[in-house]
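Go through the following before class.
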Amino acid sequence: SREEEYSRRVKNELLKQIEGVGTHNDNIFLRCATNCPWELDTAFLRRFERRLYVPLPDSKTRTKLIKMFLKDTAHNISDDDWEMLEETTAGYSGSDLKCAVTAAGLIAV
C-alpha cells in the first residue's frame, strides 16, 4: 500500500542518515528512545553499539512521579486513593503519568 511505501522510504532515509553519523570523528553522540523496542527494525538496531533498557516505573516510583507532577497543585488525595493510583497506573511510563495528571487537572477546571 501507499503507507507501507512511504514508511519504507522514511526508514531507509533514516538508516542512511545514521550511517553517516560519526564517520568524520565529529564526536557526535546519538541517543534514541522508544516505548516499543520490540517494534524496531533489526537493521535499525544493528547501527547502535549499546542498548540500555530502562524499565517502566514500579508502584512506589509511579507515586513519587505523580506527587512530583502535582507539586504545585492543591489536592486532597487520601492514602486509599494513592494505593488505588498505584494499582491502576501499572504499566504506565513517566510520560503516560504526566499526561494523566495533566488531563485530570483539566477535568477539575
Q: What stands out?
A: Residues 2-20 form the longest helix (19 residues).
